[in-house]
Design the sequence.
């Protein structure tokens, strides 16, 4: 890696002020470092300064009460996966967190880092490949090897978003608190992520001088069932070939409301309103769940090597719907 | 005639003995090449090509040389020469820290004229492909053709025929310890190198020749090493570079390959694509086999694979070609050519059996001439519960479907001459066994201790075993071909027997007994005709006074035998909605004659099965035709088995004769075929291309529906 200076964060004001000194890539934030260190070692990122966020007090808390959850950006993936309230009432989140990487990575990887991690695309991660995501001319996956790439929302960059926590949190209706030089703001986590058509270089709306500080999750409605289903080639560690975060508010076998968010298939967590509509207000049976699966991939446009993801995603969505009714 | 004795007479031989180096390894005390640090040591790094095919127009080392902390920079390719694959060596540096070395190679500027490259077999074989080897016409070698009998007559007799294409991709060795060396010139004429190698003496001889040194002034040490699998016989360019950097700087130099280097240049198992047409008679005899195949071993050749394999085919024709691509060279990889060939052959056998309406085991019984495997089929089928399999493939109900399959393998492993060893008994009763072999993880150190301890009536911990060092000048061959134990064990056995005889000669007068009546007991020596005459081992060796007994051994062919047979049965479960494949159980029945240490033999079988299942369900090198680079030169996207993939493995050491046969390679051979056949039995669709990953399973199921 290139040499960099290392600053311990003392306050959010100091952090945003340091970030404001330059554009993307000069000053970067580090918490768990499980993604960033690999990027530094591979020369994908070459920042001049790293700001260590772990010295910020109180940002790793997980608060749960009747209104919902508030999770600090520095909470570890392991803490989220093992939190009793999250396990009982926000099952999809606990399952998603538990499916991340390995225990070692979950122990240091943080919520903020998981949401802001960069793509795993093998062209993007190869220093010598000057791909569109890094300012080059083409997305090499289009004519190249695309087994692990996007089937939805790709154009013009066909990466997939690697986060497991993001689909689960979006399905739970989470919002994210962001702090910048002008103060703090909140937005729904769904709107936080962007597609390459809007910005091929970034995966979210964060400005270079902003930082994610907290995620809030409203308490689920009574009789809510939620699941995170993650298909991968290897037990661990492996990123999702496709994943489905499903949150279903049920009345017996009838689904009152549903949110269904896909991971591993699009450059951003992919909310499938079509699949949600297919189950909402319906008694879920084999045929309704099949319909939901089919609706989830109705806009899918597979590349050379990833048509299997269409079938896989369809089946995972159907399975999640059936689980909600069983 | 020399023999290992009967099982009933053995105290240690054939028993389960814990690896002597185990404790050192799990506590971190064991020092691998990677762990060697010499005072003032420098770190070496190699700049490698990121371009698959180019002519070198210029190399500028000046900025690297000027970086503080850099002690040497050397070119490894001449201007005007061609780079022919990603990872090829361009230049090397030695610096005070590894970080400085890494920075320095990035300051070396190379001017290249890029040439068209081809990195896939299909692209290389295309009519308009650029030619990448000057010594071949096109990118394919002359075909190697083998014929037996008359295939036309054979097909005329066939009642059923199968035509199919089977493929296995390039697989890399993934040694956990990467290739590397620590080189240190003691003075201008004496070189010491710690090497992660499978062949201490081969590496020594290479250095001696290359650096024009007397062989006895080059010392190569490999006390512990972290995996070779056939890829670590010679020092490679990286080894010679480490020695050269040390020579120039006068300091010790450590140069270990990175994980990326390891995938790119440290060898691989060539790919295989074979189109087969085969026929069997109505009574289930394999009668005709016609195969055309190719594979790539990178820019070099050597892409061999077996076929037909194991089963008897009276009429066969096999035509193989090597395809050159702009990628790193193949090297021997655990049972070279066999796992690929076995996967294709065992898949083919099941396809023929199904056309005949015959049970796959029965079909093999008719066609397998090997009596050991015939017995193994019975045992393996019983242990996996073969009667539970789907009579009709894919007939299981529910989302998750289970299936069973089997595969077979064969290997030589008879060992050979060329090992010198010395067993020494000291007057204080201590014992040493020394030979120039190396323990590449198979446990030869423990086996040597067991043989000597058995001969002397001692415990394995009483024997100090010294291996992995060329300095005592007791040569042994490289650890390859499953040859180490059958090559080394007979020499140790005869050396120990000779040393014991010498000791007996010294103490027979003291015991007033005929020499032939002396025996070793448990820590004692006694007279068989008068058991009152017993002395302890230490009393006996005390008679040596200021002397020691030290004897060499000879390779006694009667103590070893060539030929190992194995069969494996797999049970798998497939989630038909997600394509997830779970291996439930593998029963591995493996013969290796006399398993000197049953515990390490079982470990060897476990390891082989795990490597085989990696090939079956995970491993594949991905090459990008656009950039000419490997896309998964890491352990994220080059996936190897982890704990979630490893099933219950029932490793059965199948006892046959009491002579030693090597077992390093054979257990990885039958696994992919057994798994592929189990997948077919589960879902009723055949996947003829490894690895069997969820995408292929889902695509196959979609095609079936």
Sequence:
């Amino acid at each position: 890696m290139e040499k960099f200076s290392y600053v311990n964060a003392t306050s959010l004001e100091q952090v945003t002020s340091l970030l404001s000194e330059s554009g993307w890539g000069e000053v970067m934030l580090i918490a768990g470092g499980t993604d960033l260190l690999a990027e530094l070692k591979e020369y994908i990122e070459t920042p001049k300064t790293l700001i260590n966020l772990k010295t910020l007090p109180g940002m790793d808390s997980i608060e749960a009460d009747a209104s919902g959850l508030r999770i600090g950006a520095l909470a570890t993936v392991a803490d989220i996966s093992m939190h009793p309230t999250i396990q009982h009432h926000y099952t999809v989140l606990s399952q998603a967190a538990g499916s991340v990487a390995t225990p070692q990575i979950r122990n240091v990887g943080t919520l903020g880092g998981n949401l802001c991690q960069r793509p795993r695309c093998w062209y993007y991660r190869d220093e010598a490949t000057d791909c569109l995501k890094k300012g080059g001319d083409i997305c090499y996956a289009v004519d190249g090897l695309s087994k692990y790439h996007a089937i939805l929302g790709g154009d013009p960059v066909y990466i997939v978003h690697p986060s497991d926590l993001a689909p689960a949190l979006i399905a739970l209706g989470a919002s994210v608190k962001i702090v910048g030089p002008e103060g703090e703001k909140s937005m729904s986590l769904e709107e936080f992520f962007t597609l390459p058509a809007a910005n091929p270089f970034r995966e979210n709306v964060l400005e270079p001088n902003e930082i994610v500080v907290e995620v809030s999750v409203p308490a689920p409605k009574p009789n809510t069932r939620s699941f995170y289903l993650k298909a991968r080639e290897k037990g661990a560690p492996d990123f999702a070939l496709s994943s489905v975060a499903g949150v279903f508010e049920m009345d017996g076998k009838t689904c009152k409301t549903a949110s269904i968010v896909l991971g591993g298939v699009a450059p951003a967590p992919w909310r499938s309103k079509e699949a949600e509509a297919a189950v909402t207000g319906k008694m879920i049976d084999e045929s309704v769940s099949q319909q939901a699966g089919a609706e989830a991939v109705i806009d899918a446009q597979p590349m050379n090597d990833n048509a299997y993801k269409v079938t896989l995603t369809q089946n995972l969505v159907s399975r999640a719907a059936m689980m909600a009714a069983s | 005639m020399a023999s290992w004795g009967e099982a009933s007479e053995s105290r240690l031989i054939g028993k389960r003995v814990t690896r002597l180096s185990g404790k050192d390894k799990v506590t971190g005390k064991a020092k691998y090449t990677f762990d060697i640090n010499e005072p003032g040591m420098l770190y070496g790094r190699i700049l490698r090509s990121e371009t698959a095919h180019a002519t070198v127009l210029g190399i500028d080392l000046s900025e690297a040389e000027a970086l503080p902390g850099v002690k040497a920079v050397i070119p490894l390719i001449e201007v005007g020469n061609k780079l022919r694959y990603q990872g090829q060596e361009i230049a090397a540096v030695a610096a005070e820290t590894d970080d400085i070395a890494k920075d320095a190679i990035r300051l070396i500027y190379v001017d290249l004229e890029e040439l068209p490259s081809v990195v896939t077999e299909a692209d290389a074989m295309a009519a308009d492909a650029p030619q990448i080897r000057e010594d071949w016409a096109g990118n394919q070698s002359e075909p190697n053709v083998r014929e037996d009998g008359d295939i036309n007559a054979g097909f005329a007799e066939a009642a059923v025929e199968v035509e199919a294409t089977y493929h296995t991709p390039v697989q890399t060795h993934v040694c956990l310890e990467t290739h590397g060396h620590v080189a240190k010139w003691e003075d201008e004429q004496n070189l010491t190198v710690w090497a992660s190698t499978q062949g201490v003496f081969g590496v020594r001889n290479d250095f001696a020749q290359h650096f024009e040194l007397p062989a006895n002034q080059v010392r190569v040490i490999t006390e512990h090493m972290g995996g070779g699998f056939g890829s670590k016989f010679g020092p490679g360019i990286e080894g010679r570079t480490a020695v050269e950097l040390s020579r120039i700087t006068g300091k010790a130099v450590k140069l270990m390959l990175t994980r990326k280097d390891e995938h790119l240049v440290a060898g691989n198992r060539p790919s295989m694509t074979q189109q087969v047409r085969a026929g069997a008679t109505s009574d289930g005899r394999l009668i005709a086999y016609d195969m055309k195949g190719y594979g790539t071993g990178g820019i070099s050749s050597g892409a061999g694979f077996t076929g037909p394999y194991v089963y008897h085919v009276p009429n066969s024709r096999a035509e193989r070609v090597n395809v050159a691509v702009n990628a790193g060279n193949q090297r021997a990889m655990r049972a070279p050519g066999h796992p690929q060939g076995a996967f294709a052959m065992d898949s083919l056998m099941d396809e023929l059996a199904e056309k005949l309406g015959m049970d796959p085991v029965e079909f093999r019984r008719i066609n397998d001439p090997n009596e050991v495997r015939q017995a193994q089929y019975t045992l393996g089928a019983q242990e996996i519960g073969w009667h539970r399999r789907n009579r009709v493939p894919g007939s299981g109900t529910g989302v998750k479907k289970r299936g069973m399959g089997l595969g077979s393998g064969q290997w030589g492993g008879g060992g050979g001459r060329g090992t010198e060893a010395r067993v020494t008994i000291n007057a204080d009763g201590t014992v040493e066994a020394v030979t120039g072999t190396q323990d590449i993880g198979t446990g030869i150190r423990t086996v040597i201790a067991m043989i000597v301890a058995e001969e002397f009536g001692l415990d394995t911990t009483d024997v100090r075993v010294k291996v992995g060092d060329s300095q005592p000048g007791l040569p042994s061959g490289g650890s390859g071909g499953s040859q180490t134990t059958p090559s080394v064990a007979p020499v140790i056995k005869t050396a120990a027997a000779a040393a014991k005889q010498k000791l007996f000669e010294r103490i027979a007068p003291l015991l007033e007994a005929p020499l032939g009546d002396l025996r070793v007991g448990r820590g004692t020596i006694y007279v068989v005709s008068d058991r009152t005459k017993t002395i302890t081992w230490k009393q006996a060796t005390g008679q040596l006074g200021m002397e020691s007994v030290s004897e060499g051994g000879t390779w006694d062919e009667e103590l070893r035998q060539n030929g190992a047979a194995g069969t494996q049965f797999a049970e798998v479960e497939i989630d038909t909605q997600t394509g997830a494949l779970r291996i439930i159980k593998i029963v591995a029945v493996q013969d290796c004659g006399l398993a000197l240490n049953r515990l390490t033999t079982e470990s060897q079988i476990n390891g082989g099965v795990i490597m085989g299942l990696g090939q079956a369900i995970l491993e594949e090198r991905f090459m990008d035709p656009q950039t000419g680079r490997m896309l998964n030169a890491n352990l994220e996207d080059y996936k190897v088995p982890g704990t979630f993939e490893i099933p219950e493995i029932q490793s059965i050491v199948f006892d046959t004769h009491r002579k030693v046969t090597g077992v390093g390679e054979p257990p990885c051979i039958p696994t992919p075929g057994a798994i592929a056949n189990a997948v077919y039995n589960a879902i009723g669709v055949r996947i003829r291309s490894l690895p069997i990953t969820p995408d292929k399973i889902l695509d196959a199921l979609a095609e079936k529906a």
